[in-house]
Description:
Strand content: under 5%
Low-confidence stretches: 1-11
Oligomer: single chain
Shape: flat
Number of strands: 0
Order of helices and strands: HHHHHHH
Distance between the termini: 61 Å
Radius of gyration: 23 Å
Mean pLDDT: 78
Number of helices: 7
Amino acid sequence: MNALIKNxxxxxxxxxxxxxxxxxxxxxxxxxxxxxWTYGPGVRLVPLIIGVPTLILSVLVLLGEWCPSLLGRLDIxxxxxxxSEEEMDEAMEQGALEETGEVGVxxxxxxxxxxxxxxxxxxxxxxxxxxxxxxxxxxxxxxxCVLVSVGVVxxxxxxxxxxxxxxxxxxxxxxxxxxxx
Length: 181
């Protein structure tokens, strides 16, 4: 196996570790999509909604591994226009520091959402998450935030609870509250 996986620095190799991993991902995803088609009409919807876009994107990544010039045409950055190489290096270092802080914020949001799901369930947590996130980061009015949040919650509830018939987790506090009532 080590003979097939070459050093990632050899750009001309088809059998780099990342290429091999992406090829395995494509094969696995293709198998899951094919398996998804064997399910009944109501059950296969979710695996195919997830599997087909994943398969398409994985194939694009694999093509980009084999022929980087294809994906290079889509790579656009405003950093490369009108700046010297030293200015770009300084901007990249500054960007790396800012990116670290942004990753911390993203992780905090994810942990907060997971804790919210655990405590009050999917529907209420996602609604509150969208509401607060839009108000803080999109600087939208409260009315617009509430409308979008209600639309997202309605879509999730309609898709999972009504259409698919899946019971979404309602959280330990909501279960306790409903147990008291």
